[in-house]
Specification:
With about 725 residues, this protein is α/β, with parallel strands linked by helices. It has 27 helices and 17 strands. It is found in: Nucleus.
């Protein structure tokens, strides 16, 4: 069911009323990305304001979602669970099947297998009691079993349907699932669910009457019977994405048109025209669904939806607004949305900032050096949480780096000036010289630069846009006083949180104050006697402890890092932010250095409509987020250096532990910041089916997949064929 902006308040009232009546905790399944963490921060603050208890479960993939929901099945059946929030996960899959039907089917098959084993055991024991002349060998038992399997095969399906229907009736009808997910397109089963699933979205998205119709099970069976020319590799022959690709669009679509004519003719029954019309109707729906699912993209950031919900019930505050701004910024700097969409949201948030910060617009002095965040001058209480709009450079962590390094290690400058070349590095120095900015000033910490240079820095850059720069040099953004200590830009916070989430080791603070804080927190938790607290930080810590016990991987560092990133948002923990910023600088350094290495070594291979590259022996780039940022940098570098048509880019990183490649795919783009809808979700899957490759979805992003080493090259060739229809 779709929920628009005007109904968000009613949804929260529904959650609140459910809590008052049943006192069952709200379960929050949260993806491990910055926007999801910001969304969860808003939701937990909102729930905490009403004293609603909650539990946070971080998830990396739908395997994790299935694991948690399997463990919650008893609570679901017993009516002990009434509200589940899914943050940046769940929107693009059939939740009814994944959360309810699949566990029941697995349980049914497990029970049937156990019954079969018990039956065979009884027969074997009975056979052992017979005389030697009457003994039955194993082959006879096997033949008997095969005969029985053939007899009950049809009954098995009927029993399964009856089993699922019976147990579905036992699931509490009051259970509701609230989905805050920026991934699009939504799964149509979720859209048309009118009882349990609520898809929360902004007002500028598709309306209910704009979605394709959904086909029920009877229609699917009839379509299968009416379509004898069906492709064996895909059940939907009318899906444009499922036809073989040729070298050009004309050749590619011709066989498809012939297939449609053949299948349409086969839908003409001898008994009359009614079924024929129904068959054509099914074909039309299948084609509409094919077009609907063809490309993936991002909608309004989930934290923005959560903030709208908070405002609808008059519970919003500056911290929630800041979290929503961070979610928007994360979508922009990681190229999930384009500049136009970003500017539209910035305009709306400017109004919110003015409304909430009108009385605290005086200038604040601070020391922004990383080592002195917690020792910076304390501002007045009125200005402690002040948010301010301003123009930001497209540099990385400028306030915490030198100007030279912030420029050199930013994707914008590195690609515009081609810093992997000697001439590019000279051009960077020449740009600074032309701006009359001494190199020694640019190479010392930005906070130590002379005020005169910093005040006119923006104007100096604007006057020298002819040196290979353009209007993407700056963009509108926001800064905030972090806990009354230092001002940070929204991008600074995003880079810091993301750096923690994409680390392959457990991030820990080096500050001794953190040790004291953890000791005090542990002592307080030991004093608490109630097993279930209200929605406060202790609930988060409890969820973190339980999550670390889940046997997903040998190393649960990512779960610890999730809660570290969650705590970075806390204004009373500046030491966490300081260490996260230092880690972000290191990560950006590694991205640019690796990108330059790949370009210099000419490790990028060019095909008709895509480029691809694989990385060996660099485990750090197993993180899909880090690998994606590296891919964006390399693709931008090639786009600027060539006048040919842009190409898609596929980047793979080898994991020696799993003997597989983590692969990300990015759609071709025409210019810096250009954001295109992605064909990779379907292309990855179709290529995998064609070669029967061993693959695994390891993230919620449709453009990320894990492919076994032995299948990689064959899969890559088939992927290129699938992408031929998406060339510029």
């Amino acid at each position: 069911m779709l929920i628009g902006k005007d109904d968000l308040g009613e949804i929260f009232d529904q959650i609140h009323n459910t809590w008052i009546q049943y006192r069952t905790a709200v379960i929050i399944l949260c993806a491990a990305d910055c926007d999801a963490i910001c969304t969860t921060k808003i939701l937990t603050s909102l729930l905490g304001a009403e004293m609603i208890s909650y539990q946070i479960y971080p998830v990396l993939s739908y395997e994790h979602v299935a694991h948690y929901t399997d463990s919650l099945q008893s609570k679901i059946v017993d009516g002990e669970l009434h509200s589940i929030m899914m943050v940046n996960c769940g929107g693009i899959v059939d939740l009814h099947q994944m959360l309810f039907v699949r566990p029941l089917v697995d349980k049914f098959h497990s029970e049937q297998q156990q019954l079969k084993q018990n039956k065979r055991g009884r027969r074997m024991r009975s056979g052992n009691d017979l005389d030697d002349d009457d003994d039955l060998d194993d082959d006879e038992f096997e033949e008997d079993d095969d005969d029985e399997d053939e007899q009950v095969n049809e009954e098995q399906v009927a029993r399964l349907n009856e089993y699922v229907t019976q147990h579905m009736q036992q699931i509490d009808a009051r259970l509701k699932i609230y989905v805050f997910d920026a991934h699009r397109p939504f799964n149509l089963s979720n859209v048309y669910d009118q009882h349990k699933i609520y898809l929360l979205q902004g007002d500028d998205e598709q309306k209910m009457n704009e979605f394709p119709e959904i086909i029920d099970a009877d229609d699917e069976e009839e379509a299968a019977q009416l379509s004898p020319a069906q492709n064996d590799e895909n059940d939907d022959v009318f899906d444009d994405d499922d036809d073989d690709d040729d070298d050009d669009d004309e050749n590619m679509h011709e066989p498809m048109r012939k297939k449609r004519r053949l299948n349409t003719a086969s839908l003409q029954p001898q008994s009359g025209s009614r079924v024929s019309e129904r068959g054509r109707h099914i074909i039309r729906i299948q084609r509409e669904q094919s077009e609907y699912y063809k490309l993936q993209y991002y909608a309004l950031h989930s934290s923005g939806i959560a903030y709208l919900m908070a405002r609808s019930v008059h519970k919003d505050d500056n911290e929630m607004l800041w979290s929503a701004i961070l979610g928007l910024t994360e979508s922009f700097v990681h190229e999930k949305i384009d500049r136009d969409r970003y500017n539209q949201c910035v305009t709306l948030y400017c109004d919110e900032v003015k409304r909430r910060n009108a009385s605290s617009e005086q200038e604040v002095s601070y020391d922004s050096r990383p080592e002195n965040i917690e020792n910076s001058s304390i501002v007045t209480h009125r200005n402690m949480d002040h948010i301010q709009f301003g123009m930001e450079f497209s540099f990385v962590l400028l306030r915490f780096w030198t100007l030279y390094d912030a420029m050199y290690y930013s994707r914008y400058i590195a690609t515009k000036l081609a810093v992997w070349k000697q001439s590019g590095r000279e051009n960077l120095k020449y740009l600074l010289a032309k701006m009359a900015l001494p190199l020694n000033e640019a190479q010392q910490p930005y906070c130590s630069m002379k005020r005169a240079y910093k005040q006119k820095l923006a104007q100096l850059f604007q006057d020298n846009l002819d040196q290979g720069l353009d209007d993407n040099l700056m963009y509108g953004s926001f800064t905030k006083q972090h806990g009354g200590h230092a001002a940070l830009s929204a991008a600074d916070m995003v880079y810091a949180i993301t750096a923690v989430l994409e680390s392959d080791f457990r991030v820990k603070s080096n500050d001794h104050f953190q040790v004291m804080h953890e000791m005090n927190t542990n002592a307080q938790q030991q004093q608490q006697q109630q097993p279930q607290s209200t929605g406060q930080q202790t609930q988060v810590a409890a969820a973190a402890s339980s999550a670390e016990q889940q046997p997903f991987f040998d190393d649960n560092a990512w779960q610890s890092n999730f809660f570290y990133g969650y705590d970075v948002l806390a204004k009373d923990k500046p030491y966490l932010l300081r260490d996260a910023i230092e880690l972000a600088k290191k990560r950006q350094h590694e991205i640019i250095d690796m990108g330059i290495r790949l370009i210099e070594k000419r490790d990028i291979h060019t095909m008709t409509v895509m480029r691809w590259c694989k990385i060996e022996n660099y485990n750090i780039f197993q993180s899909p987020m880090l690998l994606c940022k590296l891919a964006i940098f390399v693709m931008d570098a090639f786009r600027i250096q060539t006048t040919k048509a842009p190409k898609h880019f596929v980047l793979a990183s080898f994991n020696d532990k799993s003997n597989s490649y983590t692969v990300v795919g990015l759609p071709a783009k025409r210019e810096y910041g250009d954001v295109q809808k992605s064909p990779f979700y379907n292309a990855f899957e179709e290529a995998r089916k064609r070669v029967n490759a061993t693959a695994k979805i390891v993230f919620f992003e449709g453009h990320v997949i894990q492919i076994h080493k032995n299948h990689f090259m064959e899969w890559l060739d088939n992927l290129h064929e699938r992408l031929l229809s998406f060339a510029f």
